[in-house]
Amino acid sequence: MTLRRLDADEVARRAEEAGLQVIEWGADVHVRPGDDWAAERAFEAMARHGLTCDSYGSYFRATPVESGKFGEIAATAVRLGASRIRVWAGKAGSEDVDSYEREQVVAGLREAADVANEHGLEVALEFHGGTLTDTAESTVRLLDEVGRDNLGTYWQPPQDLPDEQALAGLELVLDQVRAVHVFSWWPSNERHPLTARTELWTAAFGLLAKAGRPLDALLEFVPDNDPDLIPGEADSLRKLIEAGA
């Protein structure tokens, strides 16, 4: 998110300088679905700077109007060398949909997971308000309803949720977490350095270490979207991971 206004090579260069290893390319700016030229440029940039693509950050929301369109997204993810595609669980929160609307999203996610599987890819849900993954409980239920082994979820601290409740949610979805979006917002979407929420992230990485499998920790936001802050935030991220281990 922080590097949207920079071109692909500059994104990769700054990531390398910060000591980062992977990138999640967004489908809204840098590599749109079906844009083979942009995917190739991004792949070449990663090769120059010693990086890999862990995930393709799509904006697929599993709605009926998107049926049949996930193949193009999956093909672009393959071109990037990604192992996973990030998707969204509908367009409304879990308390704002009826059973029919929920089943439509479930069907869309099943289709996406099956198409992704044909391309050797995983799928992971954005853990976010205004979708069916707005709570840990709804996320667990949704994953169970979809019933696909290659579908998991991301995790990030929900806005305005106290640390104890946020961590309880993480523990609930822990077995299904594929990656974590790391940032410090409080209150609401006011952005701070990672160290402003040291206790939260140290505890979160402690829980994630118990998962016993490799997980990606992705820096998503920095204060003021300032790219010059990324090296310091990356260093803080490494220290927080080590503290939680």
TrEMBL record:
Q: Please tell me the species this chain comes from.
A: Amycolatopsis azurea DSM 43854
Highest taxon, organism lineage: Bacteria
Q: Which residues cross the membrane?
A: none
**An example Gene Ontology molecular-function term:** isomerase activity
Q: Which InterPro entries match?
A: IolE/XylAMocC-like (IPR050312), Xyl_isomerase-like_sf (IPR036237), Xyl_isomerase-like_TIM-brl (IPR013022)
Q: Which residues form the Xylose isomerase-like TIM barrel domain?
A: 13-189
Q: Kindly provide the name given to this protein in its UniProt entry.
A: Sugar phosphate isomerase
Q: Does the keyword Phosphoprotein apply?
A: no
Q: A Pfam family this protein belongs to?
A: AP_endonuc_2
Q: Which UniProt keywords apply?
A: Isomerase
